Structures are given as structure tokens and as C-alpha cells.
From TrEMBL:
PANTHER family: PTHR34614, TRANSPOSASE IS4-LIKE DOMAIN-CONTAINING PROTEIN (PTHR34614:SF2). GO terms for molecular function: DNA binding; transposase activity. This is Similar to Transposase. Residues 224-254 form a coiled coil. It comes from Crocosphaera watsonii WH 8501. Keywords: Coiled coil.
Length: 285
């Protein structure tokens, strides 16, 4: 039953370990990419867009390590040790356990995985997404537009990917984006690209283009207004205001029924109440 040159002692309980060691020596990414390229060719996968995101996997068991030894290992990257199992932001809702992070690039057509990378448990998307895209483009040569969430958008990443095609969301933590959204008029957004909306069947969406230079890179920002989303948000806001009003009335009854030795004590109490309110403020009692 054994093939030529296969000895019986090759088949033992250490076989899977030896195979995994050999795969690691050859390079897991290299093997993965060879398979991916064959799949793309055989099934004619559409690669106009590629999507990058990350997730985390919690790990059970003990990972004991001396803190000073861990710091030394972090300072100089050891090739034989690819990742650190650490606590970090847990996407599978187990912040109590250590974890590793998986970065994955998929195709738009059927979500075929194109590139996989495993990282340290406390790794930040902002710190690695730009490097992941650059590495991906080195490994697989095709003209794909990279789609990613707002973790990609930062000055350092923009410098790294300035020669690539990409789409991402600009986070509202950026002052320029916040100012643009606050200052733009709804009419300005609605007046632009009416024909495009009809052609793309996007009648409930309106947008305005702005040419912006950020991080030294010239780019096009789209300010998008969704009429359905706006209506939904306003309904939620009305509901929240109603709940907050009831809450503030309850606090008012409490403060009006309480006796204070001095007006300043009442003002301190009112200040504490206002801190508990998010949307309303009691100005005077």
C-alpha cells in the first residue's frame, strides 16, 4: 500500500508536525498565493476591486512569558517567532483572553481570499493596513482598486499607498472632514450629479465632490447624503430627545424637592445633573 521510496517509519504521529514545519520553511504566504493565482485563472475571478479587512481570534490555554523577556523579543524581530499572542481589541468579544489578528484581502467576485497575513494580538489596523496593501501588490501583479475601512486613512498609510488605486472612508476625527460636513449646504449636495443618480439607480442618494490634499496626497472626497438614512436618523433623534426630556423632568422634581443650605450647593447639584444629560441642559431652576 506504500508508494515507492515511502518507508513505514515515515508514517507516525509526528508526520503532521514535520509537514507543518516544512510548509512554514517554504513560506505559507507563497503557497497560498500560488493556489490563489491558479484559482483566479481557472475561474476567471473579477479583480477590479479587492477588499481588505481584519479580524481577531481568541486563543485558549496559557501563554506564560516573563515581561522583560517579551520586551527584548519585541525590540528585535525574531524570524522563527512570527507573532506575539497578546491581549488586544477583541472582535469576537473575548477581551479576557489573549489573541492573534488575521488580515484578509478578498476579491469582489465571490469573496475569494487573495492574501492572508497573521499578526500580533495587540496589532493596530491603522499601523499595518498600508504595509499589507503594499506587500499584496508586490506578490500579485494586477490592476485592482483596493477597498478598505477608515483604518487605512492616515498620513503614513497614504504615503505608502500613493502609487496604488484605493477607496476608503475618511474618519470624522479628521478636522478637515468634520468642517466640510458641517459647513456644506444640503442644496449644494443635491444640485450635483442628478443624471448620474438616475443612471446608477441611486435616486435616494446625493453627493458632492471635493478635491482635497491631505497627507501630501491629492484625492477626491465624496460627501454623501442618504435621504432614507437622514429620515431614520431624525426619527431616532426625536425619540432620544423625548427620552431625555422625561429624564430631565425626573431630575427637576428631585432637585426641587431637596432642601439646600446655600444656593451654591444647589448649583453644584444642578451641574452634576447636567453631566448626566447628553442632549439637553437645564439652564435655570
Amino acid at each position: 500500500m506504500l508508494g515507492e521510496r515511502i518507508k513505514p517509519d515515515y508514517l507516525n504521529d509526528d508526520k503532521i508536525g514535520r509537514v507543518m514545519d516544512e510548509l512554514y520553511k517554504y513560506g505559507l504566504n507563497d503557497i497560498f498565493i500560488e493556489v490563489v493565482l491558479e484559482v483566479i485563472k481557472k475561474f476567471k475571478i473579477d479583480l477590479k476591486y479587492s477588499h481588505l479587512d481584519s479580524t481577531s481570534f481568541h486563543l485558549d490555554g496559557e501563554y506564560k512569558r516573563e515581561e522583560d523577556k517579551e520586551k527584548q523579543e519585541e525590540e528585535k524581530i525574531i524570524k522563527e517567532r512570527p507573532i506575539f499572542i497578546k491581549k488586544g481589541y477583541s472582535r469576537d468579544h473575548r477581551p479576557d483572553l489573549k489573541q492573534c489578528v488575521l488580515d484578509l484581502i478578498t476579491s469582489q467576485d465571490g469573496d475569494i481570499p487573495l492574501f492572508v497575513r497573521v499578526g500580533d494580538g495587540n496589532e493596530s489596523d491603522k499601523a499595518v493596513f498600508g504595509k499589507v496593501l503594499v506587500e499584496f501588490k508586490k506578490q500579485i501583479k494586477f490592476d485592482s482598486i483596493m477597498v478598505c475601512d477608515s483604518a487605512l486613512y492616515g498620513q503614513e498609510n497614504l504615503q505608502l499607498i500613493q502609487h496604488l488605486k484605493w477607496i476608503t472612508r475618511v474618519p470624522m476625527t479628521i478636522k478637515k472632514a468634520k468642517e466640510l460636513v458641517q459647513n456644506i449646504e444640503v442644496e449644494e449636495v443635491k444640485d450635483e450629479d442628478k443624471e448620474k443618480r438616475s443612471d446608477l439607480n441611486l435616486e435616494s442618494y446625493t453627493w458632492k465632490e471635493e478635491i482635497v490634499t491631505y497627507g501630501g496626497i491629492k484625492q477626491t472626497w465624496l460627501i454623501v447624503l442618504s435621504e432614507k438614512r437622514q429620515k431614520s436618523d431624525l426619527e431616532k433623534l426625536e425619540k432620544q430627545l423625548s427620552q431625555e426630556e422625561k429624564k430631565s423632568q425626573k431630575f427637576l422634581k428631585e432637585i426641587q424637592s431637596e432642601e439646600f443650605e446655600h444656593p451654591q450647593a444647589a448649583r453644584y447639584k444642578l451641574k452634576a445633573i447636567n453631566k448626566k444629560l447628553r442632549l439637553l441642559e437645564i439652564k435655570e431652576v
